[in-house]
Design a protein that fits this description.
This protein is of the alpha/beta class. The chain has 9 helices and 11 strands. The chain has a domain at 40-163: Rossmann fold. The termini are close together.
């Protein structure tokens, strides 16, 4: 059967120019959006148990906009005034620009990579005397602390928020031709909300190696994987798959 409807486990894009809308129109499919997970803060009293003093650090490494929000949230709740001398290292330029929400943007104190955490290593090596604080989710990528250790970076991991499964009970059933996931937490949410879920002919798409592994570990079949050489984005992978699938199922 042709692919007629897709569920993307993320919030609906705010821009009308999103590639998802182009895919829907071009391939005559319906694409719905529904976050399978959401972020909850680690309360200040829980953070105190980590025995971390923010002001003991001279620099902060941010891997997401969410980590920025929760770093400044905790600092505000603990009435900590983050000094102007603090340096900020971000995995991408867009994350770095997001800092303007909280501080006066000064390029001399803000550094950013090209999107991957690995890209930061060269920058951190040039600033090897700093003591880094790394705000992360409770469910963070293990390669982050591993890379920092391998490169002899002086760092402290601060758990400031957690990713939890959203309540999807209003969906009742997952009656979609394609389900699209972007994190292992999304797969966990699927199985938690729908413990009787049977994949059958449902096509599952995943982005990233860790998500692909989570699909397989859950005993599910992985049909679409991104990024790939011919499809560096999820939207490109979906577009290619839909064209081929629908051509063969006329």
């Amino acid at each position: 059967m042709k692919i007629k409807n897709i569920l993307v486990s993320q919030p609906e894009p705010q821009s009308d120019k999103s590639p998802y809308f182009e895919i829907a129109e071009k391939n005559n499919v319906r694409i719905d959006f529904r976050p399978f997970i959401h972020v909850e803060p680690i309360e200040t009293k829980e953070f105190r148990k980590q025995r971390i003093n923010i002001l003991d650090h001279s620099a902060v490494i941010f891997t997401s906009k969410t980590s920025i929000d929760h770093f400044f949230r905790v600092a505000n709740e603990m009435r900590i005034s983050v000094p102007d001398s603090m340096k900020y290292f971000c995995t991408s330029e867009s994350i770095a620009h997001y800092l303007q929400k909280y501080i006066v943007y000064r390029k001399r104190k803000i550094f950013f990579g090209k999107g991957r955490f690995l890209d930061l290593m060269e920058l951190l090596d040039k600033h090897c005397v700093e003591k880094y604080l790394v705000p992360l989710s409770e469910q963070h990528k293990i390669e982050i602390p591993e890379l920092l250790k391998e490169n002899n970076v002086n760092f402290t991991i601060a758990i400031l928020y957690k990713t939890v499964s959203s309540d999807l009970s209003d969906l009742q059933m997952i009656n979609y031709d394609v389900l699209v996931f972007f994190s292992p937490s999304g797969i966990k949410s699927l199985m938690k909300n729908f413990p009787e879920f049977k994949q059958n002919d449902t096509i599952i798409a995943s982005f990233g190696n860790s998500t692909a592994e989570a699909v397989k570990e859950a005993g599910l079949r992985l049909d679409i994987q991104a990024p790939m050489p011919n499809a560096p984005s999820m939207t490109m992978a979906l577009d290619l798959f839909i064209k081929e699938h629908n051509k063969n199922n006329k």
